[in-house]
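Sequence in, structure out. First:
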Amino acid sequence: MFQDYRGLRVIQYPADALPAVPGEPPPDLLRLTRAFSDESRLRILRFLATGPRSFTDVVQFMGLAKSTVHHHMVVLRAAGLVRVHDRGDVTTYSLRPGAVDELGDRLHTFFQAE
């Protein structure tokens, strides 16, 4: 969530406030695996892997409604897969370096936990 106030931009990010339930998949792992479970989101990630893109670029590439692309971008951001680059008048999105590699590590950690 973005908020501009008297020349100051405040950016808020969601945080997991509740502790994970032992034996259950942690919320961050669920967000990550759900983000990968949609074909459109995988296509968006592949597009963003080539470099920073504007929201309009993503909409044009996908050929979907803005609201649909917005939903997918929110899911990808909440999963920690996409970075937002806010330069005042221009906002771009890119694949977060190392984010895809974390999937295997997180799954391994969950599967090995007792």
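Second:
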Amino acid sequence: MIVDYLGKTYRSYEAFTRGRVWKIRRGRWLKKNGPFCRACSATGALALHHYEYWHDRFGDEPDESLVALCHGKRSCHSTAHVYVDSGRHESRRAATEAFIRDSRNHGRKVKARRSWVRRVLRRVFAPAVE
């Protein structure tokens, strides 16, 4: 059972995240901090991931305890939970930050690799100058 900061009870955490209190809290956070995934910069379907839970303040958490992660096709939010559940990090916050850092580094590497491939293909398929 989940109880929000106003004292309203919910059967589950999922029921809480579908409720009015969370929708308002989520909207305020996204408006203040920007509606994009902190791991891959995607916009669209976003979830607010908790760096840590404030069990006595559900819906009234400090902004610093939340981070936006995409919740769509690629789902950075799900991958962040894999990092958290792995047990390789000392805290939920450390696991989430490690995931965001790894994801950003991966994006940079992919971009550099694509650029290199384009340069090579241009050289290979460039018309021969005679």
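Remark: The longest helix spans residues 92-125.
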